[in-house]
C-alpha cells in the first residue's frame, strides 16, 4: 500500500519510511525540510512543502490516487524551545494540522495515524501508565500534542476521518543499516547527549534533575529502539481498520514503548557498559517543562497491533554509538 508520511525527512519519519519499504509498502514523503535533512529522503517519492498547503496536498492526492493512509509526524518537538517560543508550536503543530486534516477529509483520505507523546501523562507513583490514565502535559510542546489528539477524536466523531494515535515513549538508536538517525548538531535527546560526551565532542553529560521521587532521584523514561517504533507504525497502518473495529470506535490511543522504566543514572550505567568506558558526568537542576517520567503499559499495542519490542536497550545504545561514528559521512558534520 502507499502511505503519505508528513515529516518523512525527520529522524523517526525517515526510519519509519524505511520500515514501510521493508514491509513492501511505498512511502510518499511530505516535508518542509525545516528540520529534517534532504539526504534522509533518499530516492523516495518526495514533496517539499508545508502540511497546511492545501493546494500541495490536493496535488499529492491527485498524483497518488492509491494513497491508503497518512502518517502525520511533521511537528516541532524541542521542549525547551516550546517554552521560549510557544507561538511557533501552536501555529505549526496545531493550526497547520487542522488544515491538513480538513483537506485530507475533503479528499476522502480518511485514515490518519498520528504521532503523539508520552509526555502527556500525569505523574504516577508507580510510573507505569495505560492509555486511560490521567494527563497533565507540562510544556507547550506536550500541550500541542494533546490538542491534536482532541481534534482528531472530535473530527472522527463528526466526519468520516478515522484516527489511530500512537503515544511515543523515548525513541533511541538508528535504523539497522545506519542510514539515518539523530541529525541535529546538538541533540536534546539524552542518548545523543551521551554520545557527544562519550566521543569528546562536549566536556560532559549533564543529568538534569536529581531530586525526583524515583529510586535514584533522576527522571525515569521508557527507552524504545527507534526501529521497534518504526515497526509499530507499519503494524498500525496494516491493522488500522481492524484495530478500530476491535474497539468499536472511530479513534483510539495506543502506547508504544518498551514497557519498563529506566532512570537517567541507570541509562548512563548501561551506556558506559556498552561503550566500554566511563563518561564524564555533571549534575544540574531540571529544565523547564521536563517531566519526572513514566513507562508504558504496552498491552494494548500487543492486543490490537500484535506488536511487541524485539530490540533491547543495549541494542539501542549500540545503534546510537554506531550512528554517531557514521553520521559525519552522511550529514557532513559530527
Question: Which structural traits does this protein have?
Answer:
15 strands; 334 residues; Rossmann fold; UDP-galactose 4-epimerase, domain 1; single chain; 19% strand; alpha/beta
What does this 3D model show about the protein?
With 334 residues, the protein is an alpha/beta fold. It folds into two domains: 206 residues, 3-Layer(aba) Sandwich (Rossmann fold), CATH 3.40.50; 85 residues, Alpha-Beta Complex (UDP-galactose 4-epimerase, domain 1), CATH 3.90.25.10. 41% of the residues lie in helices and 19% in strands. It has eleven helices and 15 strands. The strands form five sheets. A seven-stranded parallel β-sheet has the order 3-2-1-4-5-7-12, with helices on both faces. Strands 6-15 form a two-stranded parallel sheet. The chain has a two-stranded parallel ribbon with strand order 8-11. Helix 1 links the parallel strand 1 and strand 2. Helix 1 packs across helix 7, helix 4 packs parallel to helix 5 and helix 6 crosses helix 9. The longest helix is centred in the N-terminal third of the chain and has 21 residues. The chain is globular.
Q: Tell me the series of helices and strands, N- to C-terminal.
A: EHEEHEHHEEHEEHEEEHHEEHEEHH
The count of domains is 2
Strand content: 15-25%
Rounded mean pLDDT is: 95
Rg over CA atoms, rounded to whole Å, is 19 Å
> Which parts are unreliable, with pLDDT below 50 for 5 consecutive residues or more?
none
Largest sheet: 7 strands, parallel
Number of strands: 15
Proportion of helical residues: 40-55%
The total count of helices amounts to: 11
CATH superfamily of the largest domain: NAD(P)-binding Rossmann-like Domain
Q: Can you tell me the CATH topology of the largest domain?
A: Rossmann fold
Query: What structural class do helix, strand and pairing data support?
Result: alpha/beta
CATH architecture of the largest domain: 3-Layer(aba) Sandwich
Neighbour order of strands in the largest sheet = 3-2-1-4-5-7-12
